[in-house]
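Q: What would this complex look like in 3D?
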Amino acid sequence: MPLLLIKNLTVDFPLPEGTVHVLDGVSLELGEKERLALIGETGSGKTVLGHTILRLLPPGTQVRGEVWYDGCNLLSLPSTRMREFRGKEIAMVLQNPAAALNPVLTGGYQVREAIARRWLLNGRPVRRKVAELLAGVRLPERVISSYPHQLSGGMQQRLLLSLGLALEPRLLIADEPTKQLDWPLRAQVVELLREMTFGQRAFILITHDLPAARQLADRVAVLYAGQVVEYGPAEAVFSAPRHPYTRGLLDSHPARGLKPIPGAAPAFTALPPGCRFQPRCRRARAICAREAPPLAEVAPGYRVRCYCC
Amino acid sequence: MLEVRDLKKYFRGGLLGRRPVKAVDGVSFTINPGYTLGLVGESGAGKSTVGRLVVGLVRPTGGSVFYEGRDVFRARGEEALYLRRKMQIIFQNPQGALNPRMRIGEILSEPLLVHHMVRGRYVRERVADLLEMVGLGPEFYHRYPWEMSGGQNQRVAIARALSLEPSFLVLDEPTSALDVSVQAQVFQLLKKIQQEMRLAYLLISHDLDVVFRVADEVAVMHRGRILEQGSASAVAVSPRHPYTIRLLSARIGL
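A: Here is my prediction, written as structure tokens for the whole assembly.
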């Protein structure tokens, strides 16, 4: 059994306009020390998926399906048991470090607080562990006594990463860790993530930084409007994408031509009939607007949700 | 058309302002109609300060900017008004650049009225034209910025800049807050407008993939200075300055 097995996950947000399915029948699996990139645009459900695994969704959200982690269905655990998983087994590096870090606590305090969740260390051992963690993410010692606003964006991102790694989780989830970083900083963070995950632990990278995803992932799941539309080995997906949306997404990257996909992603309150990408798809046929395509296996371990490929 | 000479901007820094921060330290370049100059560099290199200086949003410590032969920093009265119309800037975060209490229609009407671009009764018509020009339907007239996506907001910001019939636009990281596919759409729009109106662009970005794709010429900035400048293809293929080479080595291929 894989380390993480997500089966037919559906997440509904009740809105005044009606209930919307933010995730719709998502199934994924992740082996021990395997690295998965979740790519897709804003609003495709990437972050919600990360939050669902750790059960960080706001109250009132309806979640159906199963999230098996190491033989335990996280969705049916009592919340007290769930706390034992957060940070120690599964840790998440949240989006936007400036907002995720506590502005009135020093870097050192925040790292110590994270460590204290697992080890009851005091005095010198704590200081040693904090220094070790900061050095691991290439942060200078002065960060211990610095407040987040005194750090650059890249340093904040690394501090946040050190909090995620503090309890040595078996599964690390990072949400847009390279967002808004310039090239040299991004390269640093990508290298750091590679070091911290490759052969070390399972990793889910939530991102729309396609080059970073290609660097860091063994497998890729492409999300569109709350559904997985393509799921396969990273090399295959990036070098020969099959789903028209994945192709469009890659072609719109400046390194691949900056060619836009016409139209915009649908709102969850106004999904088109049949395939959700069909109104923007150049290869759409009559059946695409009539029936929703299934996520079909096109090769072992490679699934695509499309009638045309 | 646009000539920037030895531009400098020092901010007060250090104890008692004794150690000035040289954000921009002797920058010169020219841009011609219909062309795009890409200004690249790391965060903190001074790129955005150059953009703000050029359109006169920040007072310089030294140097000059000439637009169609007019001195941007010395212009007063009619001439200043003319320059403010002709030189526009698009910011990184469109949400922050649009007043959340105004509807899109009002946001686009305001500059038309302030600069007497069209007679009062034609304003509405002109706003509809502008919306169409940036690919938004007339239904957006009554929307608020916070009801719209980042890409749509950036289109509104572009429409607002175009409302004054400018000939030069500073694009300060115009797509770094947007998704890749939306980014491609925004650049497609900017390219189309540039061709139709022969606009000159100063494109500020840290994404060299974008700049090489969009700009004709590239200037690499570091610590307030331009270290290398050349045609986009030349800089992309054979960078000369060690700093440019280092910057390019941070590229992650796709």
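A: To summarize the key features: The longest helix of chain B spans residues 180-197. The beta strands of chain B are 2-11, 21-31, 36-40, 62-67, 70-71, 87-90, 168-172, 200-205, 217-222, 225-231.
Q: Very helpful, thank you.
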